[in-house]
Amino acid sequence: MRMKHSRNCHPNCSCHGDRNPLHCIVPPYVLRGIATNGTPVQQERALRELSVSGQFRGQRQQLAELVERPTARGGGAKQRIVYSADNESRLPGRRVRGEGDPATGDAAVDEAYDGSGATFDLYQEFYGRNSIDDRGLTLVSTVHYGQGYDNAFWDGRQMTYGDGDEDLPVDQRLFNRFTISIDIIAHELTHGVTQYEAGLVYRNQPGALNEHFSDVFGALVKQRVRNQTVDAADWIIGEGLFTANVNAAGIRSMKAPGDAYNDPVLGGKDPQPAHMRDIYTGSRDNGGVHINSGIPNRAFYIAAMEMGGYAWEKAGRIWYITLRDKLGVTSEFKEAAVQTLKVAAQLFGEGSLEQKAVRKGWIEVGVETETAPPPSPEPQPPTPQPPAGCLGTPLETIRSLLFG
N or C end of the chain: which has fewer CB within 10 A? Predict the structure, then answer.
């Protein structure tokens, strides 16, 4: 399988098109809110991001190289490399920590190293996956990207993190460094898993599923590192990313989509719906890829709560196998619902608690869980029968019995 990726496109969330987008953690509508409502410095930074996005939107650059999946699948040991861009925009930058090296004391470097390792461990230990591509891909991270860069992204080959607003006075900061939330690290790396598996196109419902699977495994990595059961977890994506100057728990809430933040600088209230009746049908945000992910996110949350215990053990396994084996590039919410139900039955049995939990999750957010019944067959004319004797016995049979 050959995967194409650009190294020449400026980091923004729109320049790679629907099939190979650059996956950024901060949704574009949050940047628009800041560009309208922030301080002059905040507005300038958000506008810089949005102007670059506009410059490249709709373009598809011819890619400089092809990334090949290695042919041999192995047990796979973690291989991590962390670079520093030293506040410039060249990737990958200066190597600062490799696999097995001691901590550097630089919080961003060590968080990127630990977070990518925790993501590798969850996928390998519980789902038997050998890194992002399932072939032992080295996990490459670059920290200290740009100056005042308020985002983190997976570009198809590596992770890159900005420092947020750490260069501004404390009272003007909106974002902390982007390695501060381990679920952001796992979220972005899971975009890589999706690229190698279902390959969900980054638009409309398939794109919302792309974001959804990243949120699921971002949350599961955080819960596993904290050893949290479903009822102890906060189900917040991006916890700690916003500073105390922002009225926000995080970027998204899987438990309560639409309640992650409510701050005028961010453009008001979190727009995520929690039910299909409120699904966003407009064109912004690539057809609502970050907005509508709230619907399947809540379905997963409900299913995991119904199962109880550690979410990565049962609910996570169902979702992982579905992503790996059951979905395609244009899969939508209903197909995800149907396939997770089938996987739950395969793993735990038809009518099991786990399957009932999955069904409840999807039903409560308004997603159908059943496939359409097969069409009724066309009525066929009756097959002609030979004339019958008494009690319907064919005459030929009677003659045979009487005369031999």
Answer: C
Q: Is residue 314 part of a domain?
A: no
188 classed as catalytic: yes
Q: What angle do CA 168, 170, 176 make, to 5 degrees?
A: 75
Catalytic pick among 290, 306, 335, 354: 290
Non-local CB neighbours of 17 within 8 Å, separated by 6+ positions? 58, 59, 60, 202
Closest CA to 297 of 251, 329, 328: 251
Nearest to 335 by CA among 218, 208, 237: 208
Instruction: Spell out where 195-239 has E strands.
Output: 236-237
Q: How many CA atoms are closer than 13 Å to the CA of 360, on its beta-carbon side?
A: 15
- Domain range enclosing 80: 12-288
User: Quick check: is 290 catalytic?
Assistant: yes
Domain contains 172? yes
Residue given tokens 């957010």 in the structure block: 365
CATH code, domain with 117: 3.10.170.10
List, for residues 71-83, the tens digit of each pLDDT value.
344 457 999 999 9
Exposed/middle/buried for residue 281 (C-beta within 10 Å: 0-12, 13-18, 19+)? exposed
DSSP string, 369-403: -SPPPPPPPPP-PPPP---B-GGG-BHHHHHHHHH
Beta bridge partners of 248: 261
Beta bridge partners of 192: none
Which residue type sits at 19? R
Please tell me which residue in 49, 111, 188, 354 is annotated as part of the active site: 188
What whole-number distance in Å separates Cα of residue 193 and Cα of residue 159? 13
